[in-house]
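Usage

Read records sequentially. Each one opens with the input sequence:
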Amino acid sequence: MEFAVIIFLSSGLFLGWSLGANDAANVFGTAVGSRMVSFKTAAIVCSVMVVLGAVISGAGASHTLGALGKVSAVGGAFTVALTAALTVFYMTKYGLPVSTGQAIVGAIIGWNFFSNEPTHAATLNKILMTWVLCPVLAAVTGVLLYKLTTWFLEVARPGLFQLDSWTRIGLIIAGAFGSYSLGANNIANVMGVFVSSSEFEPLKIMGITFTKEMQLFFLGAVAISVGVITYSKRVMMTVGSSLIDMTPVTAWVVVMAHSIVLFVFSSQGLSDFVVSLGLPAIPLVPVSSSQAVIGAVVGIALLRKLPVQYKNLLRVVMGWVTTPIISAIGCFIALFIVQNLFLVVVV
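and closes with the structure output:
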């Protein structure tokens, strides 16, 4: 692989590292923070499953981003990914809630404005609708799963040690499923903008053909895995110990609800099955794992009549709203600088 290609892909790899460092906490944070699962086990399971999810099921959501705006030049793709990564980095640094998917969508819209390319209105509407549906669907899923789980435990009446064992195994399984869904749904945020401009050729290994998309997604997934291994432990401990007071069983419900929602919005097979029943296709859109987790937590809190910090919730929502706007403006400015100061072709 040429060195120049790595340079241009570096912004996407940086975005992938950031995603792994932060979003792995939504999958394994409570399990690790509560000492139910060791960080080593969580990191290994998460890293492997993220790669599998990205390579096997990552194409669906990337097509939606491609329809929103086809970034045709590799210099433009580099700038779009870098702007999204910097938006995530700085908003996280200053304690503002942020979504990687919203940052990359905003950056693509910024590229559309700069290049005078139209933003596909139907695709944008589908993405915006999905951003609203994601936490709502996670809340509903969380409530149903919580009721089903508590009913099962009342019927089964496991002993204390048996419940502890079930919970540990359940958290690992939920984390594995969540990691797969995270890779499948969010790899489009990391490498989706490079699909149109990539010059990778199909690669055949042991009779299996790897398309250029699969190669890009593999590199992005490795970057996510590196973020999980190198920097996610501190975030996991923070989420698991201080974000919200949850029992291990409640934590399992939240992770499963989050994982189901991410899987629903990334599974081409599930969408095709729904269409075969005569129903509208499920939109395959990169959604925020943080939105899914918060939706599930709020749903369970409302079910159990627990106090909800609406002031903090409003702050989170404002972060979701401002992220794409900041990213779009930042990308437009960055493209102007890269094209006119560094003389790099971005369009």
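Summary fields computed downstream for this record:
- The two ends are 23 Å apart (CA to CA).
- The longest helix spans residues 121-156.
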